[in-house]
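Q: Structure for this?
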Amino acid sequence: MTSDNVLTVSGFSVLYDVEPPVEAVKDVSLELRRGEILGLAGESGCGKTTLAYGIQRLLRPPAVITSGSAVFHDESGTDVDLGSLTDEQMRRFRWDKVSMVFQGAMNALNPVMTIGEQLGDVFTTHRPGTSRAERTARCGDLLEMVGVGRERLRSYPHELSGGMRQRVMIAMALALRPQLMVMDEPTTALDVLVQREILQQISQLRAELGFSVVLITHDLPLLLEISDRIAVMKDGRVVEVGTASDIYHRAQHEYTRRLLGSFPSLTGDRGDFVRTGAGTSEEVAS
Amino acid sequence: MSVLELSHVTKRYRVRGAGDMLALDDVSVTIASGRTVALVGQSGSGKSTIAKIITQLERATSGQVLLDGAPVPRRGRALRRYRQQVRMVFQDPFASLNPYHTVRHHLERPLRLDHVVPAEEVEAEVHRLLERVRLDPAATVDRRPHELSGGQRQRVAIARALASRPSLLVADEPVSMLDVSIRLGVLNLLADLQRERDLGVLYITHDLATARHFSDEIVVLHRGRVVERGPADDVILRPQHEYTQALLAASPDPDKHFAQTREGTRR
């Protein structure tokens, strides 16, 4: 038994059964350790979102899981094969053990319900016994935890900035203290300053609460800074998995190197990028 | 040689019930042939308002926009001629190209409207333009936007911008909607075209790394004000203003990250 793993995915394949059929995820095997941040990197259409959805059985026809399994290793010691759960068991499992922050999640809040009501729904659904007062208290605590503040419980989504809405979504994802949080492009629509704050907060919360994170994004420089390990996907396959340092220093796969080369260095050497107005900038500017 | 000058431009938007919103506050920027100026800042900093004022989609509340020393015309044929000189490449090539029309139509229109070449040469010029942006004319010319990849669409948008032979190009986040592995290709194309045609380019972006590599000068905008400007490397490597420093500190920079943590991460 690998007790320090939280999730083991083996031989996972997903097919979109359309004409012609598309193999979106091909024979993916991954292990996720308890408490780690795993970056899932790749470009649009590489299958990274389909894989994340597939593991949690969130896909709908025409998507079909054609092979493989995803086994969740609960901290209690029991293993749960997600493929074998009934729909009702799966519904209970989601959010409780594994939660997800969806792409564009900050726009997924209901515009006519307050933040507090929407957070409270998590408890109403998954912890039916919770009293109203306790619900309010816990929702307030959650907002405090992500740096929004409990005074926002009665705010409507449009009264919050994009960054605050995204924090609310993260609070919602952490409400039941899941062991794994999957985040699909959580900061893509946000400014770098807000992005940095939110990512720091996630790292800090992870240190406090000990959950694991799968962070899906095309932004490899970002992943290199905050992930423990990175899996690179291309055409439905994981072409390389390694520690952030290995991916940065010793990328094995040609595609990983190409992806790394797609991001010009902010403060490092120029590399082989074309520069406009070759060499004239200093003279003209002065 | 063309020079476009924004001189002490201020733009105030009237917001109902909330008083005025100062989108640009005394901004001066100069774009000259053969040079790329990057305009960086967060969303809401006023970057796109500058693009709109340059293309005369919006008017400045005060201050002047001058092309080669003359105020930019406000209407009529003179404005058309000005817009022939100053072209725009938009962020989202799916939105900026008409889904009903073929690539040929998109390129023919400016050629005909601006009488760039005689009617019998239009078709040949369309092909030349496509070659310029490294698309295969035979394979592309009869396609509609949805049949092209994002990168190909943006190349068509660039070809269209070049059709009327402008001297200045405003590129508003031209690669942020594209897949990462093709972004540099499109930026390199813009850089090549700029040199070939001695274009002046205003590169509007929030990406400091590409701003550094693809421009001569960087102008940092924060809440409608220019807080810092200078040669690209100076601004990125030796930022003076605290806002620029904060932006740089927040931008992912794996090179710096691994240089600082070398001992810790090498196992």
